[in-house]
Design brief:
469 residues; alpha+beta; 2 domains; 4-stranded antiparallel beta sheet; 3-stranded antiparallel beta sheet; 10 helices
Length: 469
């Protein structure tokens, strides 16, 4: 039966409940600048009523739970877009490095080296027996070869740099997966006991977001509050109580492929199935863009060497063959097979008179017809199935690099805007508003004071009753 002591109990419960609400409000205010923090609130419910005449009598209020304000759908969207953002951020960074290799704005690059090479042949046409012209041609030819060498080496260095970056990224991923497993265990223990693991869940969401920036993930949560994280090809990265490991193996190119290790230690290559995150961006730069540019650079260098050597072998130089005494012929001008190995043939480096400017042995030294054929090679359709010139092929290659950089920058900007938009939307749902918290603080303070006033009133009532005795 309700009595004066029942009123006192009602006031006490109200006092304690409002105190909890003030505590939670203070927690929100304290974490207003904490990344990934989701605001919390006390869910208040009427306490169990008592049956009485003429009807049920309420017994006050109770704190049913401390609830975390969070929208899982928004969190999943953020992680998905964050994986794309990480991919394009890494891709743009890598392409900007590659763009510097093909930069011709300073006037020192492959385009200029090729132009000076063909110009030197034209000078030899004008004076086929001139030693200064031959020496200048050798110098320009060596410059062309070194330019190819340097560009190839720089592209390969980028591949090696990102190869090491990939290994470092895997260490980060493995560290995050272990932390997520640890939080899975803590969340499960708290929530099995009937509590809400709000702070641990915020910490885990922040780790999942960070992880998604490194590698694209799919996640789902079981009925114990533990998340399973899947990566490329559906392989589990986190499946409590286990955190699986990503590692590397050396492929045929000497670079590192990404492998997933199962519980028995068997390695499964997942390089091709990685779909997003910085790891995908690094792989795209290393195995895609850089390798494609390197292949096309090799094709250009190889074609120049093949075409130049074919014409040069058919001509005659001013030097004499030591066996026959006739003007030397059949001499290669370039040696090597790729941009990295391209060099001027050693025999020509030792004796520029071996440069074949004449078309026949009988017309040495005044004949320039072979030099004319060589100079004309600049304008011939020799690349892409005899559809473009050397110069146009390289111009298309260099402009293609610029287009790839602009495309990556545009995608990076778009994904950054998307993540920012989603983060702002998340903040509107889960973020802490100081204005709102201050209003709540005043509201709970007044409720606390009212409950205290009720206790004071009940105390006065009790004194009145006692004084009547």
């Amino acid at each position: 039966m309700p009595d004066i002591y029942g009123i006192l109990s009602t006031a006490t419960r109200s006092l304690l409940t409002q105190q909890k609400a003030i505590d939670v409000t203070g927690q929100n205010i304290a974490n207003v600048n904490t990344p990934g923090y989701s605001r919390q609130r006390v869910v208040m419910e009427p306490s169990a009523p008592i049956n009485f005449q003429p009807g049920q009598m309420g017994t006050g209020v109770k704190a049913a739970e401390i609830q975390r304000i969070y929208d899982g759908f928004i969190g999943g969207q953020i992680n998905g877009e964050n994986a794309k953002l990480g991919q394009w951020e890494a891709t743009e960074s890598g392409l900007e490095r590659i763009e510097l290799i093909f930069n011709e704005s300073s006037g020192v690059g492959l385009e200029q080296a090729m132009g000076e090479f063909w110009s030197a042949w034209q000078d030899l046409v004008n004076n086929p027996s001139g030693y200064p012209e031959r020496t200048a041609l050798l110098s320009r030819s060596e410059t062309l070869a070194r330019t190819f060498n340097t560009m190839s080496e720089n592209l390969q260095q980028i591949q090696l740099d990102y190869d090491r970056t990939i290994a470092g990224t895997l260490d980060e991923i493995n560290g995050l997966s272990r932390q997520i497993v640890d939080l899975n265990d803590k969340i499960s223990q708290v929530e099995i006991a009937g509590q809400n693991s709000n702070d641990y869940r915020d910490q885990r969401e922040q780790l999942l977001k960070e992880l998604s920036g490194l590698i694209e993930t799919n996640t789902y949560e079981n009925d114990q509050g533990q998340v399973t994280v899947l990566i490329g090809g559906g392989h589990p990265l986190v499946q409590s109580p286990h955190a699986y490991t990503l590692s590397t193996v050396t492929n045929a190119s000497g670079l590192q492929d990404v492998v997933w290790m199962d519980r028995s230690g068997t390695a499964v290559d997942i390089t091709a199935s990685i779909g997003g995150g910085e790891l995908k961006g690094w792989l795209d730069v290393r195995d895609g863009y850089a390798q494609d540019y390197l292949d096309r650079l090799d094709a250009l260098a190889g074609s120049i060497m093949t075409e130049v050597n074919a014409i040069h072998q058919s001509g005659f130089g001013m030097a004499s063959d030591p066996l026959t005494g006739s003007p030397v012929t059949g001499q290669d001008f370039f040696a090597g097979t790729t941009a990295a190995t391209m060099t001027v043939d050693a025999a020509i480096v030792l004796d520029v008179n071996r440069i074949a400017a004449a078309a026949t042995a009988a017309t040495v030294p005044g004949d320039n017809r072979n030099a004319v054929a060589m100079a004309n090679l600049q304008g011939q359709l020799t690349m892409n199935g005899a559809s473009t010139t050397f110069d146009n092929y390289y111009s298309a290659l260099a402009s293609g690099v610029g287009n790839d950089v602009r495309n990556a920058a545009a995608n990076h900007e778009y994904e950054d805007a998307m993540v920012t938009h989603l983060e702002n939307y998340r903040e509107s749902v889960s973020g802490v508003s100081l204005d709102e918290e201050m209003i709540n603080l005043v509201k709970f303070q007044h409720a606390y004071e009212a409950a205290a006033k009720l206790i004071t009133t009940v105390d006065d009532m009790l004194n009145t009753v006692l004084n009547m005795v």
